[in-house]
Amino acid sequence: MGNSDSSPTAEVQAVPTESLPRSFGSSTRSSEIQESHPAMWHPPTHRRLSQMHHNQPPPPPYDEGSSPVGGMAPPAFNPEAMPPSGQPGLLAPPTGPSRGAMSVSSNRSNRDANAEYAECPICYNELYKEELSVLTRRGKRVCTHFYHTRCSIDFLNSGIRQCPVCRADFDALQPVPDVGRDPRGWFRLVDLNGDGHLDQKEVVEVLKAALPIDWKVLEHKLPEFWGRWDRDGNGTIEMNEMMDPQNGLVAYVRRTLPHRGEARPPDLKTHRLDWFRYWDEDNNGTLEQEEVVRALVKTFRMHKDIQRVYNCRNLVMALWDDFDADGNGHIEAREFCRAGDGLADTIIANLELR
User: Phi/psi at 137 (nearest 5 deg)?
Assistant: First the structure.
């Protein structure tokens, strides 16, 4: 990948943005998704959709095993076909997007789960907990983003040929070598431009993806001890300085900055306001659409079932305009927590959260 001379033998044409599967964005009303994709709806017991949208008849019940938007299922990609570390990436099939798959990010906010939370942008689970892959085009990485391999295969199956975060075109996946078993292979891959050096920002981004560390402390403290490894003061460190098993930066960070677990969030069903405030991490009294999706996925531990993640995102996107009454792109606590017909209760009823 990073400095490999090998390249895929066949090129897959990147799918242009306009041909991606439709996603439900900020302009999509819940009535539209009722009419065009009734399979993803399950009417709340306390608030029937017929009452919400001009007395339309309630749609068929939600089918847990159905595609989020109906239609033909995408062709399956075999995870066992992923190449070993250091080998050319898994080529995307030369097909257009499948109607049966939801674009995972076509109208998402600009939040970057890698950068903000050290999480996979698809399932919101911590990056270091699963095997990672990066996106490539003609044998070279196209962007800085990391994904869990199973998640990247899933959106590859969906016909998506652009990074869901930055929209860079790609044609293959490349598995990331394990930093412990193949440190040199790992360094070569995470060295995006292949110059053999990493600066402070690059070090933080790649380490928080690979290791169970307190990366927020690393961001704060790295400038203080950077000089131990950047001895020539040029602002970067080389592979040996980074990867030495005894005295390298990776070994130091592992010893001194262990990961600290997070407290469980309050119960959404019984303590809605406390739950809202827990996930309002910037304390501005509102949550954005993607913040709500991430909070739900993490609260109910949906990360192992990508279909549930997609269904959750689709539902929040479809309902959003009905609850964001002022159209400012944020949900306030009163709009979210209102008993009986607030966004929280409506989501709980539709997704049958437990």
Answer: -140, 120
Pairwise CA distance, residues 344 & 266, whole Å: 13
- Pairing of β 140-141 and β 172-175: unpaired
Tell me the pLDDT tens digit for each residue of 107-141: 344 457 777 889 999 999 999 999 999 999 999 99
What contacts 301, CB < 8 A, 6 or more positions away? none
H-helix or E-strand containing 187? Answer: helix 183-190
Among residues 46, 59, 53, 48, the alpha carbon closest in space to that of 30 is found at: 53
Residues across the chain: 354
DSSP letters of 211-256?
S-B-HHHHHHHHHHHGGGT-TT-SSEEEHHHHH-TTTSHHHHHHHH
Handedness of CA 249, 218, 262, 148 (dihedral sign): negative
With beta carbons less than 8 A apart as the criterion, state whether 133 and 149 touch.
yes
Q: Which domains does the chain have, with CATH numbers?
A: 183-256 (1.10.238.10)
226-264 confidence digits (pLDDT tens) = 999 998 899 999 999 999 999 999 999 999 998 877 778
Q: What is the largest CA-CA distance in the chain?
A: 72
Task: Give the pair of three-digit tokens for residue 286.
Answer: 């509102």
Letter for the amino acid at 60? P
Residue 112 CB: number of other CB atoms within 10 A? Answer: 14
- Angle (CA) 308-124-280 rounded to 5° is 105
